[in-house]
């Protein structure tokens, strides 16, 4: 019986130790964090030429980030801002010499 009690205490201590080792839960993102991330990503996108395809995509991500912020989805806002940063840093979209991007509007 004593060994069973000691084993139970050992299990409880192990659970408490593992809980203490776990990362504390992260606070929900705020509007200020979102706006800051979007501003930094926008500054980074501005380093590319205005007609660069990766800049175009980054600006679309930033537009969506602000839409998400307007909906109170600040975690999604940060995700879209990060997508914009990756787009600019990795230059995922480029045009070959002589190619142009034609953006069709809804009425075209």
Description:
Helix content is 65%, strand content 0%. The chain has 4 helices and no strands. The chain has helices at 2-21, 31-45, 53-70, 74-90.
Indicate the overall shape.
elongated
Judged by helices, strands and strand pairing, the structural class is: mainly alpha
Total number of helices: 4
Oligomeric composition of the shown chains = single chain
Query: Mean pLDDT, as a whole number?
Result: 82
Order of helices and strands: HHHH
Radius of gyration: 24 Å
Helix residue percentage: 55-70%
Distance between the termini: 82 Å
Mind summarizing the main beta sheet? Answer: none
Low-confidence stretches: none
**Strand-residue proportion:** under 5%
- Please report the total strand number as a whole number: 0
Kindly summarize this structure in a few lines.
The chain contains 4 helices and no strands.
Q: Keywords, please?
A:
mainly alpha, 65% helix
Annotate the secondary structure layout.
Layout (H helix, E strand, L loop, with lengths): L1 H20 L9 H15 L7 H18 L3 H17 L18
Helix pairs in contact: 2-3, 2-4, 3-4
């Amino acid at each position: 019986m004593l060994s069973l009690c000691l084993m139970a205490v050992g299990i409880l201590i192990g659970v408490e130790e593992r809980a203490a080792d776990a990362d504390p839960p992260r606070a929900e993102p705020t509007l200020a964090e979102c706006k800051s991330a979007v501003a930094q990503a926008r500054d980074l996108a501005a380093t590319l030429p205005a007609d660069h395809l990766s800049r175009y995509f980054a600006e679309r991500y930033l537009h969506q980030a602000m839409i998400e912020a307007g909906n109170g989805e600040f975690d999604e806002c940060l995700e879209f801002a990060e997508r914009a940063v990756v787009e600019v840093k990795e230059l995922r979209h480029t045009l070959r010499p002589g190619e142009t991007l034609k953006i069709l509007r809804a009425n075209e």
